[in-house]
Structure prediction request, 365 residues.
Amino acid sequence: MASVVLHDVAKRYGDNPPVITGINLEIQEREFMVLVGPSGCGKSTLLRMVAGLEEITSGTIEIGGRVVNDVPPKDRDIAMVFQSYALYPHMNVRENLEFGLKIRGTPAAEIDRMVNDAAKILGLEGLLERRPKDLSGGQRQRVALGRAIVREPSVFLFDEPLSNLDAKLRVQMRAEIKKLQHRLQVTSIYVTHDQVEAMTMGNRIALLDKGKLQQVGAPLDVYETPQNVFVANFIGTPPMNFIRATVTEGGAGLGANGIKLPAPAAARGALASRVGKTVLVGVRPENVVAPGRPTRGATAALQLTVDLVETLGDEVVVHAHQGEDQIAFKMDPHHPPEFGGKVSALVEIDRLHLFDADTQQRIAV
Ligand SMILES: Nc1ncnc2c1ncn2[C@@H]1O[C@H](COP(=O)(O)OP(=O)(O)OP(=O)(O)O)[C@@H](O)[C@H]1O
Ligand SMILES: [Mg+2]
Prediction:
């Protein structure tokens, strides 16, 4: 197993503005690191640079303590799984699994053992004689994983390996990959644009936007303490609500064009120097509590007008407004409010997130 260390890594194509800037990131041995961000933010580019499929413009990449900037992909001791699976269509499953090993000159008996082990781990034993075209999407993805496993690499690189699968299979394969990595203990970098995949799979997640790292941390830490508006908005479903508010009364209140809230007690000191300034108040849907449900800490009451009710099954998501401020939150599906009706709710004040409206950065309290 190996660590992967990126130091000041940047990428620019020709004279275009850089697509990756100043990435510093250390992935520890055996860690499952998820790189997540919106389409076009540079995830694949970054992963391909680790793989050696893309040159880096500046900076260094180390794998297992060795700088690999000039090491070709085949000598980096990595295995990559792509979204497209990239299986050889004219070979059956066994031949697909064997191919890389044969190229490397692995002895036949050892190839047999490795292929049979991988087939057993991935439940491919009954499919070894089939061609890729005669497999389902999930089975093809398993073969692609098998091909990575048999190489026994120090690092797995995954680029959106599940995005061609339907929603149910994606959830199933997500669990399988996670279990597999836990069992094999291979350092992994996993790219996705899906924040749920990131949260559920990563030991840590690294959020990327416009080629820059926004935050790196354990999923729960990122969820509970997002460092800027981008991260706060990206992680969580339904997403965090944002209210533009002006700091009032010596930092004690947050007034907006509809919703007025007391400031969290812990934030009053930090807000005292911002009286009259605009802040973005972040409210997670679960911290807007419908009547009759338990609350934690200080609360403030909202009187909302309902715009839309979405049924999820176990809950409904209610989209509502007070004045110009929009709020989404969850309620019991058996007692949903009427469209256009009124509903009251309590906001848990100590759970508010505060961001500077100009810099978009979290206001430390
Ligand atoms: N060969 C290239 N020449 C110029 N620009 C490129 C090239 N390859 C990628 N880019 C640009 O680099 C940026 C990052 O692309 P990249 O494929 O890494 O994004 P991504 O985060 O993987 O997106 P997605 O989620 O859609 O796969 C994009 O703006 C893309 O247009
Ligand atoms: Mg990509």
